[in-house]
Amino acid sequence: SQKIEQNSEALNIQEGKTATLTCNYTNYSPAYLQWYRQDPGRGPVFLLLIRENEKEKRKERLKVTFDTTLKQSLFHITASQPADSATYLCALDDTSNTGKLIFGQGTTLQVKP
Amino acid sequence: DAGVTQSPTHLIKTRGQQVTLRCSPKSGHDTVSWYQQALGQGPQFIFQYYEEEERQRGNFPDRFSGHQFPNYSSELNVNALLLGDSALYLCASSLGKGDYEQYFGPGTRLTVT
Fold first, then answer.
1. Mind listing the pLDDT tens digit for each residue in B73-108?
2. Do B99 and A97 touch (CB under 8 A)?
3. Which positions in chain B touch A32 (Cβ < 8 Å)?
4. Which residue of A25, A74, A76, B24 is 20 to 30 Å from B12, comparing CA positions?
């Protein structure tokens, strides 16, 4: 069956450290994968998109990798801050680049000062 | 430039009733997608509208229907409400289909009693 999985347990790290979040998928062949941030009671906010022919994408303190062989994406936040505390969602396109996004359940990140 | 707006913010309905949720997309966006997000889960795709037609649909029963207007705004209708329909309903807009980031609204919190 098709699945997209993220670490269900919350990730707790110390301020200044690098947070690494994992997204694994099975039985999909996505053309791209996206990462979103969601704060409690708010809608998700787009962070980064990485295409199948890209190995890595960076934006400020954020870095995403995409390994289509392992069927895995890693999301890194370097020099983490308490303001980075939120739930992070990965999403992939289910049907050949039509914008129908399938989301993982999200990983909650808590950065402690 | 206003982002995606949704109304109402919160709604309480009784089992068996019908509800209509509304969404105005980000300026310039022509595609609207609706998602249902249960507590602690990632958003689940309901359907997507483009050029006033339903283009994609997720695994939701026919009780869930929608509409897109010429100005690209959209409505989500749910008939014969069940307790399990209680969730955060998110609207997302994008420019066309494909590998475009989606802009989410703040959501409508629906509680069915």
1. 999 999 999 999 999 999 999 987 666 789 999 999
2. yes
3. 99
4. B24
